[in-house]
Amino acid sequence: MPGLRPLTLVAALLLAGSATAQLVPEELVVESLPEKLPPHWVWVNDVAFFNMSDGRAYLIDADTGRFMGMVSGGYSHLKLGIDRRGDRFVVPGTYYSRGTRGERTDVLTFYATKNLEPGSEIILPPKKYSGLPFVGTSNLTDDGRFMIIYNFTPEQSVTVADLERKALVGEFETPGCALIYPVGPRRFMMQCGDGSMQLANLTADGRVTLGGVSKPLWDLDNPATERAVRISESRWMFFTFDSDVIVVDGSGDQPKVVEKWSLVGPKPDGWRLGGLQPSAYHAATGTLYAVMHQGGRETRKDPGQQVWVFDVRTRKKIRQIDLASPATSIAVSEDAKPLLYAAQFGVPSLHVYDALNGQKLRSIDQLGQTLTYIQPAPVGQ
Amino acid sequence: MPGLRPLTLVAALLLAGSATAQLVPEELVVESLPEKLPPHWVWVNDVAFFNMSDGRAYLIDADTGRFMGMVSGGYSHLKLGIDRRGDRFVVPGTYYSRGTRGERTDVLTFYATKNLEPGSEIILPPKKYSGLPFVGTSNLTDDGRFMIIYNFTPEQSVTVADLERKALVGEFETPGCALIYPVGPRRFMMQCGDGSMQLANLTADGRVTLGGVSKPLWDLDNPATERAVRISESRWMFFTFDSDVIVVDGSGDQPKVVEKWSLVGPKPDGWRLGGLQPSAYHAATGTLYAVMHQGGRETRKDPGQQVWVFDVRTRKKIRQIDLASPATSIAVSEDAKPLLYAAQFGVPSLHVYDALNGQKLRSIDQLGQTLTYIQPAPVGQ
Amino acid sequence: MNRLDRIAERLARQAARGISRRGLLARLGGLAAAASVPALPVARAQAQTPKQQPGEKGDPSSCDYWRYCAIDGFLCSCCGGSVSTCPPGTEPSPITWVGTCRNPVDGKDYVISYNDCCGKAACGRCICNRNEGDTPIYQPQGANDLNWCLGTQSGVVYNCSTAVVLGAAS
Amino acid sequence: MNRLDRIAERLARQAARGISRRGLLARLGGLAAAASVPALPVARAQAQTPKQQPGEKGDPSSCDYWRYCAIDGFLCSCCGGSVSTCPPGTEPSPITWVGTCRNPVDGKDYVISYNDCCGKAACGRCICNRNEGDTPIYQPQGANDLNWCLGTQSGVVYNCSTAVVLGAAS
């Protein structure tokens, strides 16, 4: 057990008596991590917008504020594909043979949580979406078997990779539709340019076949954005420019709007949802967290300093959290004592709040340059 | 002349009369630059220490403060190898097949000043020195024919590339000696671990043969650093930890100390040379510029806010420039109306001073993250 | 407080300016506009080519400049290019997103093409994000969250963004 | 004022602290010391392994910590490692530079090995540059301006620096 040698030495030292103690030679070792992500650990994506070929994600223990490790993601990497068991994940990244030019290689890299070492790779078609990472730009199927990645070249398609066989399944065209919103073990929805949504199914071996398409689900003058949040196996909550809520269910023959309400009510007084990852959902309690600010439509990506907390069953605002500093991204841990995570693009800090009472617990500073997507540990599987 | 199309349109617009003018469609074009670097243009290296795979160098017109363009340099690229004619340069860089891991490729990339487009490449042995770029970590021969690069693996060697044939000449071992200080058309000196210096000669086709070696030229308790400055074809000025000046000539059978004096005199009062590129030499006037601060030996890399100006013939301090902000790197333009350039590692600004009267002329801000080596345009050839 | 707070402050200030000074301009008609975006020809300019037309005013290196109403990125005007030129050694993206901005000099709306310049790393200067009338990424023709370098030979590496007048919007 | 000014301020503060609080420790005897640097064996640690010995005090995530007298880089203690452990997924450099630092608890000088941890990009946290007794790069055994990741399988990419006690200097 070479890793314990320092402990043994320390014990010997204690026996010798500290008054005459001299420091003893140490052995340099590499840290290891738990097999699975603990509930209050969280991954934070840094696209390094000023130095994009050096994208990375940071792993934080939000209970202690400790920085636990990182992965390098390449140019414009997307969010991590974290298996629901929390023991492994894949990173979709792009590399160039000469850093910022030359031959492009898109690749999915496997990592184990316990050691964060890059493992196997699946080479992808060099078409991966490049831009800010959103919830729908790539997603695992719920069982972790397939990774589905949105491509934009500007032809739109999706790439499917089989994580069990560690092989590419293929690239599949989409009919003018974008992004991936899983709504079942082998099914996902896409958003289309005319405001409709498209269903797609995966065969047992991961090939994509198109399913039903809805009529336009929102007014193109006040459309739903791509900054959505999943609220059940088959349902996603979308938000329009004017902070209307549109819940779409994908379990039927075609995507269907099952709920429509407003975060800001009939008298919004300028209040608006805003940010890059502006909402979070705590499934166990049916609670929605939404980053709010006051401003016109053109501010819909701007940071907010209030988090409005809604009971999604009653559609009522039940609490409000006043953040210590503005946020463009929030997330909530999945456990029964949830933490609220908040970050602002361009500010290298992750802030941790008690999600139930809104109290600020701590900040983790010196986190890169441009934080985007926050991914809490999966819990309960 | 497609590049002139906007001008033609503007002319048409003027004829139409501005009162009723409507903006006209434009054509997107790519900027070009002069064939040769004007005397007051300057390259500034940014190793991007927080995101090192995205190293770059910025080209600044110091007369206007305009940012003229940039080149990407890869991981831990060294200073540019700028041909004395100012019309072309090579960039020694390192790339990994997976950004921060995978297969390493060291490569010399050719650029023309007029378009800053990456051109031909010479693949190098993957052994290039990685660390802060200093004056001696790579150098062109004075005629621009050969590029000589210091390797450290930790075995020490040099790589020679033939820029005329656009081919690698080879890798050549050095006897425990480091860095490259050219002292003639086909000759350079190296600093060795025991304080001696080693001569090396290049054959007509660029192969390295070792020449004479000196006895130790400085006390290892107060050694000359690698932050040196060239003061003639065959002479380099080195500075010790305690700011002694040691001028070494490499024109003879072995390197020889030809001058020894002190920047700080018999009563230094704590004054010390400091920084990463702490001195600059203006050849036409025989003037030395040295960044000075007060502190112990352990501060020899720290920034200074005073530039002491010496006449190297009389060894007298003739002026002092009080910088507006501290500097770790300085350089002086080579022309008859010299500008003093100053930057501090970790501060994204290049400051421009009149080198003759010390007046601050302008600052160029938002320049990356960690500026290191400053390279003024070559003048007069 | 941390090292990038100033960026955030600048972003916030810029956003605040955008809110206070500008009304929301009419959004482009989606796909129709996309169809009108030309694959731009690429030529060479001398650095001294005039970069503004006579019928406009303002500082093209400021995020407030009228053409930037739906831009997101580093201004080429600060990066060795201009509103209508890419920095030396970069490659313009032939396709891109467009916005509609009102020229305060003549009070008219113009369609602006925000072509990215590509093939060198991020310029890092004059970051500017304004979102007047931009669209979600599933309507890419007006979406500024996408990296539009995708259509270039040199790949998707993004250096800076231009703001080229395509024509009057009316 | 610009976005990285704060880094510079921090660097300057750290440098100032180094000047005021510490005398210049005796420099190592060059090549002899280099010969004594072992090729360190690599093993696995649990994150809760004690990271300090009983005979020392101070905060290993602070640049002021006694072991860091000749360090240059990001402190592994802030990066998922510690003074004697590399962050998960990184590879320790088997060779490196050494310094001699005085432990304020026992007043003794110790040889400290500043092994780099490699194979992931720069951690970017707790940057720390102190230069008590370091050497020019042509005397590499004591030189902190070199990237010591060169000896690893994963290549030269630098993540952070440790400060491992090799033994008493006397």
UniProtKB/TrEMBL annotation, chains A, B:
Its main location: periplasm. Pfam families: Me-amine-dh_H. It is found in: Periplasm. InterPro entries: Metamine_DH_Hvc, Quino_amine_DH_bsu, WD40/YVTN_repeat-like_dom_sf. Keywords: Disulfide bond, Electron transport, Oxidoreductase, Periplasm, Signal, Transport. GO terms for molecular function: aliphatic amine dehydrogenase activity. Gene3D superfamilies: YVTN repeat-like/Quinoprotein amine dehydrogenase. One of its GO terms (cellular component) is periplasmic space. Belongs to the aromatic amine dehydrogenase heavy chain family. This is Amine dehydrogenase. It comes from Sandarakinorhabdus cyanobacteriorum. The lineage of its organism: Bacteria, Pseudomonadati, Pseudomonadota, Alphaproteobacteria, Sphingomonadales.
TrEMBL record, chains C, D:
It catalyses: 2 oxidized [amicyanin] + methylamine + H2O = 2 reduced [amicyanin] + formaldehyde + NH4(+) + 2 H(+). Substrate binds at D72, N144, D145, L146. The keyword Lyase does not apply. PROSITE patterns: TAT (PS51318). One of its GO terms (biological process) is amine metabolic process. It is an enzyme of class 1 (oxidoreductase). InterPro entries: Amine_DH_Ltc, MADH/AADH_L_sf, MADH/AADH_Ltc_C_dom, TAT_signal. It comes from Sandarakinorhabdus cyanobacteriorum. Its EC number is 1.4.9.1. Its main location: periplasm. Pathway: One-carbon metabolism; methylamine degradation; formaldehyde from methylamine: step 1/1. Belongs to the aromatic amine dehydrogenase light chain family. It comes from the Bacteria. Heterotetramer of two light and two heavy chains. There is a cross-link at W97-W148 (Tryptophan tryptophylquinone (Trp-Trp)). Residues 57-167 form the Methylamine/Aralkylamine dehydrogenase light chain C-terminal domain. The active site is at W97, D116. Disulfide bonds join C63-C128, C69-C101, C76-C160, C78-C126, C79-C123, C86-C117, C118-C149. This is Methylamine dehydrogenase (amicyanin). Methylamine dehydrogenase carries out the oxidation of methylamine. Electrons are passed from methylamine dehydrogenase to amicyanin. Keywords: Disulfide bond, Electron transport, Oxidoreductase, Periplasm, Signal, Transport, TTQ. GO terms for molecular function: aliphatic amine dehydrogenase activity; methylamine dehydrogenase (amicyanin) activity. It is found in: Periplasm.
